[in-house]
């Protein structure tokens, strides 16, 4: 069996373009890497007639030939040296970076990735793969951007790499959120979660030191209350006021697309039925509705318990509009023959439909100038207010 020989690409000089009006042309260098030519200008310009194509050198008839040939040799040697010392698989892009003078060896490159961009990409990938719901994605994205603003405004840092992330930076951020923003420990932990997820992923793919990453990722605040207090903390509870509900209803006939109106129907129905979760709106069937008693009797998706939920006249009016659209599922988000026992497909459907609905509601909320994102979950926080005041 013969010895395996790795082919090391060799750089060759050539004149790429035709001569200009003065008869001069620029000398280029190129390497053949993975079936592709990678070329770059040497910035050496000579009369075309002074170039010796066979030897790839400047002719001695050029007064500066010695200096120019030395310059060409040094340029090629610098690239060859990087190629010889490259420990990773050589690609056209790597050689291109070497030619441009911006190549960083893999061992030195580790951890130099911008952390904010890395964290945003990671949470987006989790969302695109259906691992998290839209609300989780959007809240996480906002938390990452909030950390970026903190670094820019209070630490005078335009960016931070993965390698620069440490416990001290996180502790200062925690103190700032408590002392300046007035966040509760639970609120702080929620803002840290997407940052820690990204740090954990950086650790798993070898971009961050394991010990540093583990120390950061366990750095949550204690949230267990050890003393009874009669005060109710509702700072994180988002709901629509009576005025905002009226504004929502006013927008109903003004939105451009029927699809948006249908999504607004689903939100309003949750509002009028004690805050049904999206998963229960998705799987709500006509057989669950008792129009005479004005109730919904349904096996709740999350905890699998059967509940009887009262409906007001507004909720029933919405149902009347949806009659005849789908013979089985009220809001037509699943086909009539859908198998609810197929948990995997149901989960994919739930995440996909939820994503579209939350994005549409977010757009409606922006038209209302809400100070928070409008989501189906907001309707759950309105359940007591709506049932007691609007039936």
TrEMBL record:
Keywords from the UniProt entry: DNA recombination, DNA-binding
Gene Ontology biological process terms in this record: DNA integration; DNA recombination
Annotated Pfam families: Arm-DNA-bind_5 (PF17293), Phage_int_SAM_5 (PF13102), Phage_integrase (PF00589)
GO MF terms held by the record: DNA binding
Domain of life according to the entry: Bacteria
Cross-referenced PROSITE patterns: TYR_RECOMBINASE (PS51898)
InterPro entries listed in its UniProt record: Arm-DNA-bind_5 (IPR035386), DNA_brk_join_enz (IPR011010), Integrase-like_cat_sf (IPR013762), Integrase_catalytic (IPR002104), Integrase_recombinase_N (IPR010998), SAM-like_dom (IPR025269)
Tyr recombinase domain residues: 235-391
Keyword field contains DNA-binding: yes
Name of this protein: Tyrosine-type recombinase/integrase
Native source species: Candidatus Cryptobacteroides faecipullorum
Lineage of the organism: Bacteria, Pseudomonadati, Bacteroidota, Bacteroidia, Bacteroidales
